[in-house]
Structure formats: C-alpha cells, structure tokens
Amino acid sequence: MSIHTFNYNKTFKLESGKRLKGLNIAYHTYGRLNTRKDNVIWVCHALTANADVFDWWPGLFGEKDLFNPHEHFIVCANIIGSHYGTTSPLSINPATGLPYYLAFPTFSIRDLAVAHELLAEHLGIHKIKVLTGGSLGGQQAMEWAIMHPERMENLILLATNAQHSPWGVAFNESQRLAISADRTFYANKPNGGAKGLKVARSIALLSYRTYETYGATQLETSDEKQDDFKASSYQNYQGEKLVKRFNAYSYWFLSKAMDGHNVGRGRNGAPNALKKIKAKTLVIGITSDILFPEEEQKFLTKHIPGAKFISIDSFYGHDGFLIETKQISKEISSFLKQVYPNKQAISLQPLI
C-alpha cells in the first residue's frame, strides 16, 4: 500500500464553466500493475471517506479479501473537494494566497469522474477490470462508465442512483442548514462551522440507519430513565467523531455535488444515458436502505444493458453496503464467475 499525489498543473475546467488552476489528486494504490495492465480494480469512495479503501471497506478489500493486492492493482483516489489531500476548500487559492473556504468553485459528480480519468491516464491505465463504488462513489463510477464506456470491463454499483432524489436532497439541505446556522462557518478558518457539522452528521445518521437499527442498538434497559438516553449519546459521539476528521466546507460542497447528480443532464434523460454503459454491470441494493431505496437500483438495472440486480438483506440500512461485506463478496464473486467462467485474469474467491 502506498499513497501518492498526482499534480495536474494545467487548468482544470469544471462542468459549471469555472476553473481550478492546478489540481492535486491524492490516491492510494495496492499491489502491482501486471505487464498486460489488465488487473486494475478502481474504487470510488463515498461522501466522507478517503483513498485508503483497506481502512473503510475491510472484508471486501484487504490482504485476504476478494479484492486483494496479491492479484490485483487496486486504485482509490481522493475526490475533489474532500478533506484528505486532494484540492479542496481548505487548499490555497493561488489568486489570493489564502485558503478557498466558501470561495471554492462549485463542482459536480461529473467533475469527479473527469479527475479519475486524468489520474488513470497519468498511471497509464487504459482498461479497468472492475470499477466499483457505493452511494456517492457509485454516482462517480456510473458517470465515468457513461463518459468512457470502452475503458470499463465490469461495473459494480452499490446503494446508488441515476439521479439524486428529492428525499436525498432534503436530507442534505437540512444538514447544510445546520452548518450555516453556525456563524463560525463564515469566519474563514479551518474549523469554521464545526458545531454545525456535528449537527449535520447527526441528521445524516438518521438516513444511514433505520428505526429498527436504533431500536436494537440504542434501546434503554430501564423503564425509569428520563434523560441521558443511549440514542442521544450515540448522536453526539458520531457528530464529534466526524468533526475530528473532516471539515464543514468540504461537507458543504460535496453534499451540493451529490444533490446535482443526474446522469440524464444533457443526455436526453437518464434512460438514454445509462444505455451508453458497455461494462458488464452488477447493481446491488440494500433491502433496508431508506436513503437510496432499492427502486433506484432497479431503475439502473432496467436501463443499463444486460445489468443484473442483487438484493442484500441487511439490518443496517444504507450503511449495509459498507457492513455486509460477506454477502457482497459472495455476490460479486458469483457475478464475476459468470463473466470469467475460466477465471481469466481475475481471482474470484477470497484467499484463505
């Protein structure tokens, strides 16, 4: 495992028409690119994750997991606007010599996909064996597979959608309202909006899990309790945990990018856009996901040529795509066995 930074010194034109002068992309690689350059597994990460996929997706990616560095060259790049090394609102604006903060240019999911394409070209990768991502990561993977259909052999989309829903936008807007209610957000300092970010994370958790999840994990054992509930403590803890590792400005802009996700924009609608995908595609939905319900994954399956849909039963709601790695590994392995019946160029079983 190693972490690198790709410095794109040219002007990066965003979908909005705005420009970034210079773009740094932080990325992790695991394993080695083989001589045929056909063992690439590319991972697109979700909202507040980072490029170290072995850290946040264990069970699917790891030394003894389905996607392992002994057989594959695994790449995961930190996305534009994120907190972990790629150009973001905390980066220095060359026009002012100060951090961008709220002056950071608006970007889209398509811009994130273009950045992945630039990195792939830099790495000399012309074919990706498996491109995958969940949630916002799935949105990126989908856009990239539409823009460059010949590059992708297999596409695995988890708990994601073709267009972000009004329900999803409403959750994100509620989180931004919490951030903007914190007056320090406008103070232009690295920890600006920290209290608002804590509240935003608390709101987000309600969409990541379910009524049943909270009922089982945060239920009180005493009938006499009237305050200091487990659920209250949990929300506070998770909010503080994010504040310690992320920033409100990145969260603000990334949630805006998610809201604007619509593969049909400029392509005569989502169905026509999805038809452009040529990769063999597996779409995975989570039964209890209220943020990206399975009807959204079924829509993808209907319009991506030859796509297969699999439903994963999970107690954990949207977070199931990160937690149910045993089930997910089994389904991906089964899918790839059908694609490569002779196990050509890819391992189909986790190492023992």
UniProtKB/TrEMBL annotation:
Gene3D superfamilies: alpha/beta hydrolase. Substrate binds at residues 201, 319. It catalyses: L-homoserine + acetyl-CoA = O-acetyl-L-homoserine + CoA. Its EC number is 2.3.1.31. Keywords: Acyltransferase, Amino-acid biosynthesis, Cytoplasm, Methionine biosynthesis, Transferase. Residues 40-321 form the AB hydrolase-1 domain. It is found in: Cytoplasm. One of its GO terms (molecular function) is thiosulfate-cyanide sulfurtransferase activity. GO terms for cellular component: cytoplasm. The active site is at 135 (nucleophile), 289, 318. PROSITE patterns: RHODANESE_1. Pathway: Amino-acid biosynthesis; L-methionine biosynthesis via de novo pathway; O-acetyl-L-homoserine from L-homoserine: step 1/1. GO terms for biological process: homoserine metabolic process; methionine biosynthetic process. Belongs to the AB hydrolase superfamily. MetX family. Homodimer. NCBIfam families: homoserO_Ac_trn. This is Homoserine O-acetyltransferase. It comes from Olivibacter domesticus.
